[in-house]
Every structure is written in C-alpha cells, then in structure tokens.
Amino acid sequence: MHCAPTATGTFLGMGMAAVTTTQSKRTSSGRPNLTAYLFLMPAVVLVVLFFLIPTILVLYISMTNLTSANFTADIAQMEFIGFANFTTLFNDQFAQKILFNTLFYVLVTMAIFNVGASLFVSLLTTHINRRASFVFRALWLLPRITAGTVYIMMWRRMIADPPFGILNQALGAVGGTPITGSEYVWTFVVIVNGMIGMSFGMVIFTAAIESISKDIMNAALVDGSTMLQRIRYIILPLLRWPLLFVISYQTLSLLTSYEQILLLTNGGPGLYQTEVWALTAYHRALSNYFGNAQWGYGSAFAVVLVVIGVLLAALYMRVFRFRDLVAEPKIETL
Amino acid sequence: MKVDIEQLNKSFGTVVAVHDLNLDIRAGEFVAFLGPSGCGKTTTLLMIAGIYKPTGGVIRFGERVVNTVQPRDRNIGMVFQSYALYPHMSVFENIAYPLKLKGVSKDEQRVRVQRSADVMGIGDLLHRRPGQLSGGQQQRVALGRALVKEPDVLLFDEPLSNLDARLRLTMRGEIKALQKRLGITSIYVTHDQVEALTMADRIAVMNEGLLEAYDTPDDLYDHPKTLFIASFVGNPPMNILPIQAALEGDAVILQNDALRLPVRSERALKAAQQHGDLLMGVRPEDVTLSADGALCGEVFVVEPLGREDMIDVRIGQHRLAALVTTEKRIRAGNRVRLDINADKLQFFDPASKRSILWT
Amino acid sequence: MNVDETLSAPLADLSPTTVVPPPWLKMLIQIARNCLVVTVILALLALVFGSILRPALEAVNVNEELTALLSWLLIAAIPPALYLTVGFTARTLRNAHPARALVVALLAATLVYGATLLWNAAFPAAQAAQGQPSLEMTFAQADSGVVIESIVAGSAAEQAGLRVGDVITAIRRESIDLAALQSRIEEEPLGTPFRLRVQRDGEEFQVTVNSIASATGAGNAALSRAAAGRAVALVVTAVGLLVPFNWLPYLLLGVTLLPLLLGYTWLIVATFSQETHGLLPVDSTGSLGGLTLSNWDFLTEVSRRGSVWTYTLNSFAIAVIMTAALLVLCSMAAYALSRMEFRGRRLFLSFTLILHGFPAVTLLIPIYLVLLNLGALPIIGEYIGFNTLGGIALVEIAFGMPFGVWLMKGFFDNISWDMERSALIDGANRWRTFWEIILPQIRPGLFALGIFSFVGGWNTYLIPATFSTGTRIANLPVYIQQLLGETNPINWNEIAAIGLFQMIPILILFVFAQEYLLNIYSGGSKGSS
C-alpha cells in the first residue's frame, strides 16, 4: 500500500494505478464523525467562501450586464440578461484573436519550455556530477521564487534599448543590430514565462529519472548501450506518465495564469498583440485599462476558463490521483 | 481480566477478514494467534484493541461489552511489530506518555516509569531517543510503555519479527517470564509457530478468517484436528502421504502405489475402519533409519541442521522427510531403509481435511 | 553438451569471411549518414516553423515573430550542427587511431563546408534573404556628387545603363552625398525603386534602379570570407572531436541558464551603481564607474509614497498570516482526509482533487464581490473585506489551501499507522494524537509548506494589486510595480535596490532550504519526502 519509498515511486505508480487498480470499494461509507468534521471545518469554510460561492457567482454575473456604471455588490439588484454576454463574446472579433493568441502562447511555451527544455535539462542534470546537478536545479528555481514584479523588472532591463539593455549590449559587442522588445514581444513573453514554468517539469522529470532502478541502468550498460540509446529506450519510455502529468498540469496553469504577461506587456504592444484569454477577463472587469469595467462581460470570459479548468482538473486528477483516493484509513470510528 | 469473543465478524468491503470467531481467554492466560499472513489474526487483535470496528459479534472484557468503547478506555497495552515508539520523545517520555494522558502526577510518573524501565532492564536509557537504541532496546521500551499503565490486557502484534534470531530467543523467554510473573491476560499475534508453541498457554490457529483450532500447544502438536494444523504446526513440517489402510489379521496394511507398510497400532486400526483413500501424516522425527525397515527409498537431499540431518527420501513419487543423527553420514544418492513410529501416526480424511483420530 | 555449440555458433558467424571496408571509409559513410539525419531534422523543423506554423498563425491573426525567429535559427544552426556531428561521429575512432580520426574528421568537415558553399551559390536567395539591400554598385564621394566606382557585371544597374564614372547627384529631386545615399539604400526595404539623377559628361538623365539583396562579395572579399568560414568549420569540428564529452552537459546547462544569470547579475550590479549600460556600472556621463550606495537610501528616507518599511511590514504581515493559517488549516484538513473515517470522505477527497488543479485566479472577479460583502459584515467586516490586509490574506490562504492540503496529505499518508494506534491505545484522543504524536513526525512537511506559503505570500502581487487601492496596505511587489509604472523617468537603480531588498528573505531561504524548495515546487505532485 504505502510501499513507495520515494516521491517518484509514488508518482510513477500513480498512472499505473489508474489503469490497473479497480480495488474493492468499501461499501460502508463510514459514519458521521464529528471529530473529522471539526478538523475539516476551517478549510471547508474557506472553500465555500472563495471557491464554491465565487464559482456560482461568476456564472451568475456572466449573465448580467454589471458594469462600473451600474455596479452593485448586491446580487439581487443586478440585471439579468441571459446569455447576451456570451453571444457578444462569440461574435467579438477580438475574442477570436485572443483565443488564438492563447492557444499559440500555451502550446509554444509548453512545447519549448515546460516540456522541451525541462526534459532537456533533467536529462542533462541526471548525467552529471550530483553536486553540480543540484546547483543547476536550484538555480532554475530562482525565477519561481522571485517576486513577479522583480523578475519582470529584470527582463525589462534585459531587453531594453541601447545602451541600457543587456541583450543589446551583447549584440553590440559582436556587431549585431540592436533589437527592440516590441519587435520580438512574443519571443520574450514565451521566454519569460517558460523560464518560470520549466522548473516544474524539471523537478518531476529529474525525480522520475533518478528513481529508475540502478539495476535497469546497469543492465543496459552491460548490454553495451550508448548514452543516447539509454535515453531513447529506457528513460523516455519510463517517463511516459510524468510527461503526461506535466503536460496536463501545465496546460491548465499556462491557460489560466497571466500575472507575468500583465506585468511585461499588459497585452500590448498594439491592439491585443499579446493579450491572452485569462488576462482579458481581468482587464474587462478588474483593471481600469478600458475606462469602463465590464463585470458581466469579463465574467463571461472567466466562465469559459472556469469550465475548462473544472473539466481538466477533474479529468487529470481522476487519472493521476486515483490511488490516493482509494487508500482507506486504517483506524476506524467505533 | 478475561476476554470473550463471540461470533466476531469483520469484513472490508466484500473481503471477509474474520468469520464467526468464538474465543474465550481466561484471566491471566497467554494466548497466541497463529496463522499465515492475511489469516485475520491481526485484524482480530485490532478489534480487541478498539482500532477496528467489528462488523458483527461481541467482544467482552470481563463482563463488559467493549465493542464501542474507545481504545483509550479499554485499559490495554499493546506492543507493535514496528515498536511504534514516538521518535520525537525520549525513552522516558515514551513510557510516561500513557501516564501523562491519564493525568498521573509528575512524581508518580517518574516512579512508575523508573519501575517499569527497571523491570525491562532499560533503566539507564531513559534520556535517549528511540533512534539511538538498538532493536532489542526499542522493543523493551515498547514493552515498558505497554506495561506502565498496568493494563488489564496486553496485546502483542508480532513483536519479535524485526529482531535478529538470537535476540528473538532471549526476548521470547523474557516476555514469557514477565507475563507469568505479572499475570496479565495476554494475546500474542505471530506467524512463527515456534514462538506460539513455546510461549502460549493456548494457541488459536487461524486460516482465511476462520478459527482452525484453539488448544494447548501440546494438543495442537500431538492431536491436530485438521490437516491444516498438522501441516502448519511443527518444524520441519509433517509428512503427508496419500494412503489406503486395510486390516490384515491384527495388523494394518498401509499402502499406496509405492509403499506397503504393515503396522500395529491403535491409531492405524482406527484408520483402517475408514475405507478408501486417506492422508497419513507422520512427523520427520518419527521416521527412523532402520536396517529392517519396511520403507525403502533413495536420499535426494540432505539438509544438515546441526545436531541432526534432515534427509529427504524419495519413495516412488512420494517424498518423506526424516530426522537422523549426523553420525549416520547419510549422503544424497544413498539408498536407505526407514521405519515409522506407528503410535505417532495421524490420519486425515482427504475430502473434509479433518482428522480421523481427533474431533 | 550442446551448450557449447549454441555458444560458439554466433561467434563463428562474426568471424570475417567477407571483405570489410577500411575503418576510415566506414567512418566517412557513418558521418555522411549522421549529417544527413541532422540536416533533415533541422530543416524539417525549420520548415514546420517557417512555412507551416507561421502562415497558419498569420491566418488567424496572431501577430507573432517567434516562429520566424525559430525557423531562421534552425537554418542558421545547420552548418555548425553538421560540423559538430562530424566531430562527434569521428570520436568513436579517436582512441584507437587518433591520427586517422583527425584526418577523416577534417576531410569530412571540408566536404561539408564545400557543400554549404555550393548550396549558397546554387540558392543565392536563401543567403540573400539575410543580406543588406544594395544597388550592386560601389561609390565614392566627389565634388559634384557621388561617383560610381564599380558596377557588378550583369546587374540591374548595368542593364539600366549606368557606367563606372557616372555621378549621382540626387534621388528624385533631393540632392545627396555619399553617406546619405548609403543610408537611404540600407534603410529602404528590399526592392525599393531608386530614381537616380545621374550626370555623365555634363549630360543629366534619370535612371530607376531597384535595390536587391547584396550577393556574396566578389573577389578578394569572398575569398577571405571563405577562408574564415573554413577555419570556423575546422575549429567547430575539432571541438566536436576533441572536447571531453562530459563537459558538454555543463556547457549546455550553462548556456540555458545564461539569461537568468545575466538578469540576476544586473540586479546586483544595478543596485550599487548610478546607472547601468547592460551589465556595466556607469556614472551620469555614461563612462565606466559610478559605484554608489545611494540607491539604498530608501531604507531610511521617507519618499512621496511613504517609507519602504510600511510596505515591508504589509508584505511580512500577509506572508506570516498566510503561513500560520495554512499550516494549521492544511494539516488539520489533510489529517482528517488522510487518517479519519467519516461519511462523505470520498466526496471530500474528490473535491480536494479537483480544487488542487482548479485555476483559482479565474475567480478573481466574483471574489471581489465576496470581499465587498464580507466587508459589509458587522465588526469583523472591517478586518476581512476589500482593501484590508485580512481580506487579502484570506484570499491568499484560500488559494494556497488545495495545494497545501495535498502536500500535507502526502506526508500524513506516510506516517506509520501503528504509531497512531499506539497513541490511541495509550489513551490519547484523535485531537491529542494529531498534535502530540503525528504533527511532530511530519515536521519536514510543515517546514516545506511553511516555506512554500511564506514565499508565496511574500511575493504575491496579483491579489493585493487587485483587492487593494492606494498605498495603505500595498506590499513590496505592488510598491515596486507602482514605481515602475511612474510617468517620470524611472529610477531603475533604486527600484533594483528595492527589488533586491525584497528578495533578501527569499535568498536566505534559497541558500538554506533548496532541497525543500526543489521538493515542493513539483507542485504537490508528490507529498512524501
């Protein structure tokens, strides 16, 4: 049952468990247990206040014409307009552009960084001196633990015009022509986000690779395989589940996080050039960027993400966490 | 404190772990639950401890039904296979913890912990952490903790299986002696029959959730009521041979395709009254080398056990294990003649797997 | 018996009965194959990015340049990649026959280089795409205007009737000099028609010439470039052949980390200098130097926006409240989910599962309303509503909770059941077991969650920026963003100092708790440690 000695032991097992475990479901669902409910209560209160109610609320607001002009915090006074916001949304030519922006952003960042680079770095760090690999991995964590505003400030200086920008200084040194941030805006949006996102995959892949039994690797060595062959025929096949996990988890995370884009480009330059879906919801409702905050319309954008989010979360958590779910407590209530 | 178990049932979902268990444990008695892993013995113990809730049936401590009594209110002590010492507490704090929870005064805690620790021979380790102790010492601390609150019932869940063989032997004797001295009703779960046989007053043999037998060690060994008990109790295990018994004059002929063995004994006579196929059981120590023995076979394997050799003899397609003194210098490939102690034979009905001799 | 036969059979097959090609030839074939594979892979990728993905994205109105950049990079990477391939392939021969390996590698590299030259010659457009616009003439300044010094034979200019010695006086009616002409040619896009006013032998006429990308320079220039290119090719090949293989991962890791290292280096350098040009500290005149500590004056000064310590205190309050609350809340909830049996356990578990992956930030809009309504509550509303530290902390706690519960549940799941049973038998109830026996066992988990929460709370920007106004409860990240958003010239160096100041607790944690950080930032995909 709890036989996994390492993190990845559990992790690698998870996927398999989803497929093979159809363990006996306990018929008795237990009894109302006051102690347990007391333990859960504070968490439940917060979940209700900040997840359950808001989810219902966002569905409702998306069907009202709430704007800053007729703003009210009282639900009863909001004007219900049915699906009008969604009709507008589907006919909004900018919404279409933003949708494709989002798809581009998610897929490209994921492919290059969150999966590609993280896999690359994990393969490298697991084939070098342990101490050094630890240093590299730790350094990769820096973007994730640096405050977004500080991190973005660094990048803004990185791509600043000459003579201030670091990149342009380097380009100047080798005789290249200076570039501007707005010229390569998507490139930087992807890099800036990717450099944060890749540490997630890196940690998971590294743990998974390190958990591959030494016997298997030794057997492969004895068989005379080269390093590339070992990667191709042993490591990568064993990384199937972690890979799937990282992809599904990071899709959701890229789809819904927008803080870095907000800070780096705020959706610009130009009309919606780097605007993504989640940022639009924020802009419409919570930022004065457009002068008039459109709560209802912004909520319609948010609802789309909420629906996708709930579906994806439910789906992949079912797939990946199944075994955790079926583990039954081994102390019973009398 | 006597413990009574009536019609105890436990199932996890569709899996039945314990089925209609009936046991009575006398006050001061040392009872072992013996069985292979997964037989329901630990589940039963945990129900007695109040960790698992019985699906059906009644557990009584004295006259009190304890089914819904919380573990803390049952006044029991328990020793776990993993010792379950609290790693963040010193030995003293570990042993004092049950007293602290009972609200015993600090001074009394100190006195009682010291007394309990002295009994266990760990009086000088009180300030160490469990992590700094050897396995045997940890086991003593666990025992000390279980004893310190002077429990009515002591529960042991395979307490010795994590110790090395030598230490196991010592602890076995100590626990037994301690239990006799303190006279605390004890239930001891083990899969090691030697432990059960040497320590327990009575042994409850369990198999697949069912009670196979509940008897004294001697009875289990000499009068096994079922084939399971016969083959499970005793090491090396009893030889079981398919056989037919027929009366021939005043002798009984036991024979099958490979052997023919005329014997004279009461047990064989009883067996001969059952026509048809039988299973004959004979312990290796009851098989002897004998120049005029009725059985003849080739030695296949010799396992030196130190004082004796265990030899595995092939008779036709049957195998017979025997214990012989090392002086005989039997080697694999030798042909030997064997005799069987007819007064120690066991007979079982192959269909019901029950003994023909004992009920 | 027959064991020997079966063993010797394959050996017999291996013994050379046919003529084996010499190792250098085998090596060359192998090199050719590998080079082909590398070229095809890179070219295909470039094709996907440049000719498939890019038009597709343009078709749906995504204005991006990344695919073009990638396509260009991939194509540009082909020659060096080939040289490296040559070197790497030749390595297998290196130890046995070093001289032969070297010769084969250099030969192969020369062949590859020749192939790239041929390619460039055959498809000048491919190279020209990167070339400068040119009128295919060279000029010199003269008194009357710009004299044509040479014209590329067969060029458009020659066909338009221009001769060496003609003097260009103007483009259209704009009279020009050499510098102006050259900059015009460079600035205008390729294919721009230049209507040149030309004087020849006192006669004046107009000629229109389209600018095209300059071809490979003729004569000496081409030769010297070829020589240089060949030298580079050989060096790269030698690197591939000779550099110890175990350096490569370090090199690659270093390169990928470079942007980060540069960024953080800038942050530190900028903090101690008046201004920076790239990574160099400069003074107000732009010359090297200008190291100063004045950027750190914010520590003692009170600016228009107030003292930095107010923001620090707010940051600290949010982080500490969040950490404390999450530790208690998550471990309690996780304990119940992991260790207790109760009706609805499966429901709670599934719910936690979904929440763990739930994109909470999408709920900011309705949460604003929730906070407004909470703020309207009597008495406590003052502390937990919109624009209060309590309100911000509450939202942070709620958002951090699903992850925390998962993390802690993983730790609880790994605690021995016997330990807990033992405590219950010793006389503890579940609450005491939790506090006195189980919690001390999962100290690593508490530590991990504590660090995670503190870092999260300390760095948080979006929630305080959204749910607070003004400066009263702004935290450091919000303050930094306010400074960066100012309309007056931004004082980057002071803000860098504030940024570094903000990072100090994080860096301390980073130094002392990397392993915990590495473990937690797997996003709670694990729990045990």
Would you kindly provide a written description of the structure presented here, covering whatever features stand out?
The complex is a heterotrimer of chains A (334), B (359) and C (529). In chain A, 69% of the residues lie in helices and 0% in strands. With 334 residues, chain A is mostly helical. Chain A is flat, with a radius of gyration of 24 Å. The model of chain A is unreliable at 1-29 (pLDDT under 50). Chain B is an alpha+beta fold and 359 residues long. Chain B has two domains: 3-232, Rossmann fold, CATH 3.40.50; 239-348, OB fold (Dihydrolipoamide Acetyltransferase, E2P). In chain B, the strands form four sheets. In chain B, strands 6-7-8-3-9-10 form a six-stranded mixed β-sheet, with helices on both faces. In chain B, strands 13-12-11-14-20 form a five-stranded antiparallel β-sheet. Chain B has a five-stranded antiparallel β-sheet with strand order 15-19-16-17-18, with no helix packed on it. The two termini of chain B are 30 Å apart. With 529 residues, chain C is of the alpha+beta class. In chain C, 64% of the residues lie in helices and 9% in strands. Chain C is built from 21 helices and twelve strands. Chain C has helices spanning 2-14, 23-59, 66-94, 98-122, 124-128, 156-159, 178-187, 219-242, 248-271, 308-339, 345-357, 364-375, 381-384, 389-413, 417-426, 430-441, 443-459, 462-467, 476-484, 492-512, 514-520; strands at residues 133-134, 137-141, 146-151, 167-171, 174-175, 193-200, 203-210, 212-213, 275-277, 280-282, 302-303, 306-307. In chain C, strands 2, 3, 4, 5, 6 and 7 form a six-stranded antiparallel β-sheet that branches. In chain C, helix 9 (248-271) packs across helix 20 and helix 10 (308-339) packs antiparallel against helix 17 (443-459). The longest helix of chain C has 37 residues, at 23-59. The radius of gyration of chain C is 35 Å and the shape is extended. Chain C starts with a helix and ends in a 9-residue tail after the last helix. The chains are: A mainly alpha (334), B alpha+beta (359), C alpha+beta (529). Chains A and C meet through helix 1, helix 2, helix 4, helix 5 and helix 6 of A and helix 9, strand 9, helix 10, helix 11 and helix 12 of C.
